Structure formats: structure tokens, C-alpha cells
């Protein structure tokens, strides 16, 4: 890729960017033997594909529809990215496909502790649930905090922890069609108005009842579409909400 004039992204492995002679961008995402190609000009994308076919045996699948568990739906208004297929597989794997759905991913004001007086559950099964949910967080920022909350008890899971995990699965059952929407109209309007990037943040104070640490969250939106988010427990204990 670098021999063809592409620059490798320094913060995202497998991402290559090239500025063409017409000052347009050509972007290639590489994962093993799969490529996603996008850019400013359709003609330049076609030229790149033609050159790659000369050097490698390749199959052009046209518009992006499925990649690494991510599904893409193209509409006149934009692109919807979701993981309905993967979420259904997760529900089937843990026998939750026929469960009753719930409109919220976690009960309000839920504060989990080690719960040592409660019955222990299968740690392997619990860890498998957590691993499956963490992969879903790549397209579902609305469950990132909740998954991080139960992730803290992987070493010694108890019944309340498993109940919280199943509650998230029940939420997924009722929200299989939710995903991230990248609007074309929003992009055009916000470029015109000069608003391109938003950042949101929040945290709780001493939300972790075991270590008394805060959990902070942030979300970045570009052209009104979520592009980066995180939910993480802080490293230190603060003594006031102001310090938090």
C-alpha cells in the first residue's frame, strides 16, 4: 500500500490514506485479505480497484454490506451500521432468544458489589457473556457503561451479576434494529453551518462501591454521528464531586 502512495495511519492499524492529484482523499481499510475502499471520487475508487486486480486475485463485492460482524444498510438519507445478525447469534448462544425484552439496559440506580453472600455462578459462562457483549459495544455505545459495570466481577461472579448480564441481553432482544446512522443530509447541512465535531462527557462520583472510584464516559460525534466513545473507571479515588 505504501508503494502505491498511501500513508499508514499512526493510530489505527490497517488504515491507509492517500491524497490524489486532484486533492481528493482515498481511504483503504485492510484486515487480513479483506479491503474496504472509500473516497471522495467514485472514479478514483474504480481506478484503484482496477490496479489492485492486476496485482492480486480479487473479488469486488460492490457496496459495503457486511464486514467483521458489522452490517451496513444503504438508504437515500445515509448509512445505518448495526450488528443485528451477531446480536441474534449471541441471544441464541445463551438461550435468550425467546426471553421477554426490556426497554432499558440496566435497572435505575443499580449499584453492584462483590455480593459474597450470594450464590456463585458458572464463571466460564459469565465470562463468555461478557466477551460477547463487549464486541457489541463497537456499534452500541448505549451499553458500554453497563457492560463495563458487570465486567468488574468476572473473577468471582454471583447471581446478581449474572442477572444484570441477562438484563442487558433482554434489552438487546428488544433493540435488535438499533445501530449507528451516518446521515448524508446532516453532513451537508453541518458543513455549511460550520459545526462538525461535538464532545459529550459525564461521570458518577464513587459509583464503584468496591474501590470507591468514579466511572467517566465520553462520546464524540462528527457530523452528528457517533464516531468514538469510552466508559472507564478512573485510576484514583477523589474526595469530592468537584475534584471528580
Descriptive report:
The protein has 244 residues and is an alpha+beta fold. The chain contains 6 helices and 11 strands. The protein folds into 3 domains: 2-62, no CATH class; 84-174, no CATH class; 196-244, no CATH class. It has helices at residues 42-55, 84-93, 123-136, 144-151, 159-174, 184-193; strands at residues 7-8, 15-19, 25-31, 34-39, 66-67, 70-75, 78-82, 180-183, 197-204, 215-222, 225-233. The strands form 3 sheets. It has a 4-stranded antiparallel β-sheet with strand order 1-2-3-4, covered by helices on one side. Strand 1 (7-8) and strand 2 form a beta hairpin. The longest helix has 16 residues, at 159-174.
Number of domains: 3
Task: Give the helix tally.
Answer: 6
Radius of gyration: 22 Å
Main sheet summary: 4 strands, antiparallel
Span between N and C termini?
45 Å
Strand order of the largest sheet: 1-2-3-4
User: Could you state the oligomeric state of the chains shown?
Assistant: single chain
Taken in chain order, the helices and strands follow as: EEEEHEEEHHHHEHEEE
Principal-axis shape: globular
Number of DSSP E strands: 11
Poorly predicted parts: none
Mean pLDDT: 87
What descriptive keywords fit this protein?
single chain; 244 residues; alpha+beta; 3 domains; four-stranded antiparallel sheet; 11 strands; 30% helix; globular
